[in-house]
Automatic annotation (TrEMBL):
Keywords: Membrane, Transmembrane, Transmembrane helix. GO terms for molecular function: catalytic activity. This is Endonuclease/exonuclease/phosphatase domain-containing protein. Residues 93-286 form the Endonuclease/exonuclease/phosphatase domain. The chain crosses the membrane at residues 37-54, 61-79. The lineage of its organism: Bacteria, Bacillati, Actinomycetota, Actinomycetes, Streptosporangiales. SUPFAM superfamilies: DNase I-like. InterPro entries: Endo/exonu/phosph_ase_sf, Endo/exonuclease/phosphatase.
Length: 295
């Protein structure tokens, strides 16, 4: 009986991993499942242990199948070495946490070595904004999001990504190596069974990117969409994920105490990512995403 259960569960896990894109959205539950796909690898040792208890070679062989599928999907992520090399722009994005009284310290730690920092869940005149104003010469806050830069900001404007109020912005940064168009976005939240608003804001983000003819584009923010969520197909391509290209590991950012997924992203085009990673953010329920880029 136990060996049969192992075989059935192994087949279900392998098919879910390999064919998750074919599963209907089921009212928003499947995208949440996709956010947790990397964690399904932990089922393999459990299944192997059960097969050992059952003393079944067939069950053990079946348990290896999802392991091979998982390795094919995510093995390169764990083995990847960041390309390194010289960079021209260091950037980061952080959801500071709307109730985070230590947000000033959070951004101070994250931003000290950066050229650009995007922030979300800002409070007007709050500790995060005050601290960043001390650290950066140029700034452009809009509602609860903002961009701080060591380089001049121009052509800045607020954006509505389908939520009826501006929770995003567009600006052009003039770096020593040329101009970079920067988007900062905090897309609508996604919950099991409730991804309609998030999907609509993702679609609006894609329309904005498609309509932008800039040579270099950088999208920073809390997109409420995991790297493995089907929703990311709307943005990557045309953009490239810095963590996927130059990160060490999965780069999970949420929740901060024990991250299990990555809603915070650094996406780009017209540049090359040389390094990407995650930084702690005091008091926030998110960790920050950071990356280095060559123009």
């Amino acid at each position: 009986m136990l060996s049969r259960i192992v075989v059935i569960v192994s087949a279900a896990v392998a098919m879910t991993l390999a064919g998750h894109g074919l599963i209907p959205a089921l009212g928003g539950f499947t995208p949440v499942l996709e956010s947790l796909l990397p964690w399904m690898g932990w089922s393999v040792p459990v299944l192997l242990a059960a097969a050992t208890l059952a003393r079944s070679r067939a069950a053990a062989a079946a348990a290896l199948v999802p392991g091979m599928v998982w390795a094919a999907m995510f093995g390169s992520t764990l083995l990847r070495t960041p390309p390194g090399g010289p960079s021209d722009l260091t950037v980061g994005t952080i959801n500071v946490g709307v109730r985070n009284n230590a947000s000033g310290e959070a951004v101070r730690q994250v931003a000290k070595d950066l050229d650009l920092l995007a922030a979300q869940e800002l409070t007007r005149g709050g500790p995060a904004a005050k601290q960043l104003n001390k650290m950066f010469r140029y700034r452009y806050p809009v509602s609860t999001v903002g961009l701080w830069s060591r380089y001049p900001i121009s052509k800045s404007r607020p954006l509505d990504v389908g939520m009826g109020w501006p929770r995003a912005l567009r600006a052009v940064i003039s770096t020593p190596k040329g101009k970079v168009t920067v988007y900062v976005m905090h897309l609508a939240s996604a919950r099991p069974g409730h991804t309609t608003s998030r999907d609509a804001s993702l679609a609006q983000a894609r329309r904005l990117i498609d309509a932008d003819s800039s040579e270099r584009i950088l999208l920073l923010g809390d997109l409420n969409t995991a790297t493995t969520d089907r929703g990311m197909r709307g943005l990557t391509p045309p953009l490239t994920d810095a963590q996927t290209e130059a990160g060490d590991g999965f780069g999970f950012t949420w929740p901060s105490e024990f991250p299990i997924t990555r809603p915070d992203h650094i996406l780009y085009k017209g540049m090359t990512a040389t390094k990407a990673g995650v930084a702690p953010a005091t008091g926030s329920d998110h960790r920050a995403a950071v990356a280095s880029l060559r123009l």
